[in-house]
Specification:
The structure is a single chain. The strands form two sheets. Strands 1, 2, 6, 7, 8, 9, 10, 11 and 12 form a nine-stranded mixed β-sheet that branches. Strands 4-3-5 form a three-stranded mixed β-sheet, with no helix packed on it. The protein contains three helices and twelve strands; from the N terminus they run βαβββββαβββββαβ. The protein is α/β, with parallel strands linked by helices.
């Protein structure tokens, strides 16, 4: 397996710009003219509506901009204090199994959280990573939403470091209204984006294989 390239953007990147760049990279990977890529970034605050988004899950469309997107899933939030990882991998070389890819993304997040002594967990029927807060209370700390074109993956995951959790009130996150949303800082773990990036890169190698050079965007 060839090494996966990494790109890190230290300033917020617009959503439409990001999708266009991902789609271009997917084509290049499909044509074997570029390496697989993981892109770590942050978006300005907005809601994105996946292919399964339901109108009733948009509770307040005036709170933030809303953008339709081709990834799977429902409504989710992106904004400052949240690390987004867009993962462009070639499933032609990795088993052509989308369900396994989603499972590996979740495993990646679980192992990254372990670096901060946080126990992230899966839940049957709920994509993403959850925190058991005791007393039958749970909260989501990381979301997963993917798209696959010609067996090349894109979109990916988002991990809450210190976003404004009040922004989630405008949507039913991922269509699941019974549970809350949390972040590393909300759990009392004051980590930096750089520390989270290191944890993600370290855990990625355990789950997906070797990584290559980092390119600052």
């Amino acid at each position: 397996m060839k090494a996966v390239e990494w790109q890190i953007s230290d300033t917020p990147v617009g959503y439409e710009e990001t999708v266009a760049a991902m789609e271009a990279r997917v084509t290049e990977i499909q044509e074997h003219s570029a390496a697989e890529l993981v892109w770590l970034l942050e978006h300005p605050a907005l809601y994105t509506a996946g292919t399964g988004a339901r109108p009733e899950d948009l509770l307040d469309g005036s709170l933030l901009p809303v953008r339709a997107t081709g990834r799977g899933g429902k409504y989710t939030y992106h904004g400052p204090g949240q690390r987004v990882a867009y993962v462009m991998l070639d499933l032609r070389e990795r088993g052509r199994d989308v369900r396994r890819h989603v499972n590996l993304l979740e495993e990646w997040l679980i192992r990254a959280l372990e670096r901060f002594n946080v126990v992230g967990e899966r839940r049957e029927g709920r994509v993403g990573i959850w925190i058991d807060q005791g007393g039958r209370r749970e909260a989501k700390i990381a979301a997963v939403g993917v798209r696959v074109r010609h067996w090349i993956t894109y979109h990916g995951v988002s991990l809450n470091i210190e976003p404004d959790l009040d922004h989630y009130r405008g949507i039913v996150p991922c269509g699941i209204g019974e549970y809350g949303v949390t972040s590393l800082v909300d759990l009392g773990i004051p980590v930096t984006t750089a520390e989270v990036d290191l944890a993600l890169m370290d855990a990625f190698g355990e789950v997906f294989g070797p990584q290559a050079a980092i390119v600052d965007a």
